[in-house]
Each structure stands twice: as C-alpha cells, then as structure tokens.
Amino acid sequence: KIVKIGTGETFEAKTVILATGAAYRELGLPKEKELSGHGVSWCATCDGFFFREKTIAVVGGGDSAMEEANFLTRFASKVYVIHRRNELKASKIMQDRAKANPKIEFIWNAGVEELLGDGKLTGVKLKDTVTGAESQLDLDGLFIAIGNDPRVWLVENQLELTEDKFIKVDGRTSKTSLPGVFACGDVIDPTYRQAITAAGSGCVAALDAEHFLTAQ
C-alpha cells in the first residue's frame, strides 16, 4: 500500500488503518465556532450535564435530534426542538417519545438565522420558513443535530462505502473492501459516535491488521 500525504511524501506499508473520523455538520453561522463550548454544542451526552435546570434547544428533525432532545430533558428544565419543516424525518417511535415528553416543545417551520451573545450564548434569532417572520428565542444552550459527515474524501473512489457514505467494513471487523486496509472509529460508525466506542474500534483494527500481517 502506498500513502501520499499533503507535503508530497509517500509511505509504503503492508497495512493501513483509516481513523479519519467524522465531522458534525454546522449551521454555517457567524459566531458558531466562537460559541462552541460556550452554549453551542454538538454532543448531548458530552455536555448535557452542564445545562441542569436551563432552557435549551435542539436543531434538527431526525432520529439523532429526537434522541438528543429526550436525553437532554434529564437535565434541562425546557427543551425546544427547532425544525425547518412542519414534519419530522425521525422514525415514528422517536417522534412519539419526543412529542409525549412534557419538557419538549416544537418550533415548526423555523430556521436559525443568528446566534446571540458575546462570549456566551444568550439566544437565537429565528426566521419562519413559510412567512419570513423573524423572532428571538432566549436560550442557555443550543445543540446542533443536523447530521455528520464521515471524512472519506481520501478513499471514496478506492473503497466501498455504505449508503450513508461511511466506509463499509465486513461485519464486526475493521476489514474494508481492499485487503490490508482497515478502518475504525467514527468513519465507520453512523450510530454511536462516542470516544469510547471509537477507541474499542481502534483496538479491533489493530488486531485485524496484526492477524493480516501474521498470515502473510
């Protein structure tokens, strides 16, 4: 296997392990990076505890957004779900759980136009996607759950990918469609996306690579 890096250098190896991860999708708004960790988050399990008895919102309409919203009600006093449409993409069971939760309130046909606050999030400016009317929502926290993109640009024309564009591996192994190339972590995992599961996946890849080399 030959790997070429950005400086132009090339490296040869009998095995390669891909651990390129995945990137959370951003809203693309000014202050988004500035307020990351200061009221804006992409991970409810990582940061939910910091919003005990606070008012927060989740942006998104899929299963991940519903799961995050329900999880966050363990800590927050109020959770808004902001969605650009008037219906959710989430599965029925996830929708039903969120709609039945008394702490969750839905804001339909709304897009986040601006993040408010200097150094710390204080709210968001919303725009109605139907009427164009603008409004302000005071918040202590905003969780963005609009999906994530696995970093596969390096291999997307060389390895088989799943329908969701994650690297496809053989069952519970780390074996890709190319012998001697293994993948692990968030680049193969559309579901859990946690540091501890990625670490375990890395261990699997190391063992698979070792077994591959031993068999040569």
List the topology elements.
Blueprint: E1 2-4, E2 10-12, E3 16-18, E4 22-24, E5 40-41, H1 44-47, E6 55-59, H2 63-72, E7 78-82, H3 92-100, E8 104-107, E9 110-116, E10 123-128, E11 134-138, E12 141-144, E13 148-150, E14 181-183, H4 195-215
Descriptive terms for the model:
216 residues, alpha/beta, FAD/NAD(P)-binding domain, 5-stranded parallel beta sheet, 3-stranded antiparallel beta sheet, 14 strands, elongated
Q: What name does the CATH topology of the largest domain carry?
A: FAD/NAD(P)-binding domain
Number of helices: 4
Query: How many domains?
Result: 2
Task: Work out the radius of gyration.
Answer: 20 Å
Can I get a quick summary?
The chain is of the alpha/beta class. 20% of the residues lie in helices and 26% in strands.
Textual characterization of the structure:
- The protein is α/β, with parallel strands linked by helices.
- Helices cover 20% and strands 26% of the residues.
- Helix 2 packs parallel to helix 3.
- The mean pLDDT is 96.
